[in-house]
Amino acid sequence: MTKSLPRFPCSPLVYGTLLGLAAIAFEFTLPPYPRFIFGQFAVLVIITLGVNLLLGVAGLLSLASPAFVGIGANLSTAIMLRAHVPILVSIPISVIAGWCIGWVLGTVSLRLAGFYLAMVTFGFLDVFLVILNEGGDYTGGGYGLIVPISTLPIIGNVTLDVVIAISAFTAGLMIVLVGQVQRSRIGRAWLAIKDEPIAAEIQGIDVPRMKTLAFAVSSALATLAGTYQALLLGVTNPSAYSLNVAVAHLTYVVVGGMTASVVGPVVGPFILFVMPETFRAIGQYREVFYGAILLLVLIVAPNGITGTISDLMTRGRARLGR
Amino acid sequence: MNLLVGGIAIGAVYALVAIGLTLIFRATGVVNFAQGEMLMAGAYAYVLLTQSGAGPLVQILGPIALGAVIGLVFFFVTRILLRRAPEISIVIGTLAISILMQAAARLKFTDNPMRAVPWLFGDRDVSLGSGTTISINSVTVVVVTMIVFGALYWTFRRTTYGKAMRAVAEDPVRAAITGIPVNRMLALSWSLGGVVAALAGMLLAPITGVYPAMGAGVLFPAFIAAAMGGFESVFGALFGGIILGVVQTYAVVGVGGVARDGITFALLVAVLIWRPQGIFSTVTLRTH
Amino acid sequence: MRGYRFFASIALAALIASLTYVPARAAGAQGVSAKAILVGVQVSLTGPASTVGQGFKAGTQMAVDEINAHGGINGRHIDVVYEDDAGTAEGGISAVRRLMDQDKVFAIFGGGTSTSTASVIPLIQQSKFLYYDSLASDPRVLQNYSPYVFSGMTVVRADVAAYAAKVLGQTFKAHTVGFLSSDEAFCTTVLPFMIPRLADQGIRVVLQEKFKSGDTDFTAQASAIKSANPDAMYLCGLPADGGRLLPQLKRAGITSKLLGDTVFGDTVVPKLAGSAADGFYALWINSEQFMGEKTGPMGDWKTRFAKAFPNPPPNTPNSFSLAGYADFYVFAEGLRRAGPDPTQDKMIDGLEHVRNWTAGKDAYFTWAVPVGLPRTFRNGDHKGNRECVLIVVRNGDYSRVENFGT
Question: What is the pTM of this model?
Answer without folding.
Answer: 0.85
